[in-house]
Design brief:
Number of helices: 5
Shape: globular
CATH superfamily: Cobalamin-binding domain
CATH architecture: 3-Layer(aba) Sandwich
Distance between the termini: 11 Å
Helix content: 40-55%
Order of helices and strands: EHEHEHEHEH
Number of domains: 1
Strand order of the largest sheet: 2-1-3-4-5
Strand content: 15-25%
CATH topology: Rossmann fold
Radius of gyration: 13 Å
CATH class: Alpha Beta
C-alpha cells in the first residue's frame, strides 16, 4: 500500500477567509490524505518552507484576495529554487479564467474555482501525486 499523499493546505497573503480551505482540508483527510493546514496570512516563503519541512506531495493554495498573480508564482518559483519541483501546486479561489491559464503556464498543476466538487479536487491531487 503506498504512503498517504501529504498535502499542505495554504492560505497566502492578507486573505482572512478560511472556511473553504478548512472544508477542503477535511475532505482531503476523509479521502485518506495527510493534511497540514498553514493557518492564515502566510507569506509565499513561509509556505515553501512548510512544504519542505513537511515533505508534502502537493501545496493546495486557497486565495480570495485577488493577489493570486503575485503570490502563487512566488510559491512555484520558491519550490523550484529549493529543488522541490516535484511538489505540485494547486490553486483555488476566485481566479478569473485568463489568470488561471497564466498560472498553469507558470507551473501551477490546476486551478479550481468556486463550485468545484471535492471529488474533482481529490482526483487532481491523486493524479499529481502519481496515484
Amino acid at each position: 500500500m503506498p504512503d498517504p499523499i501529504r498535502v499542505l493546505v495554504a492560505k497566502v497573503g492578507l486573505d482572512g477567509h478560511d472556511r473553504g480551505a478548512k472544508v477542503i482540508a477535511r475532505g482531503l483527510r476523509d479521502a485518506g490524505m495527510e493534511v497540514i493546514y498553514s493557518g492564515l496570512h502566510q507569506t509565499p516563503e513561509a509556505i515553501v518552507t512548510a512544504a519542505l519541512q513537511e515533505d508534502v506531495n502537493c501545496v493546495a493554495v486557497s486565495i480570495l484576495s485577488g493577489a493570486h498573480m503575485t503570490l502563487i508564482p512566488r510559491i512555484v518559483s520558491g519550490l523550484k529554487e529549493a529543488g522541490a519541483q516535484d511538489v505540485s501546486v494547486l490553486a483555488g479561489g476566485i481566479i478569473p479564467p485568463e489568470d488561471a491559464e497564466e498560472l498553469i503556464n507558470a507551473g501551477v498543476k490546476a486551478v479550481h474555482g468556486p463550485g468545484t466538487s471535492l471529488n474533482t479536487i481529490v482526483e487532481t491531487i491523486r493524479s499529481a501525486a502519481g496515484q
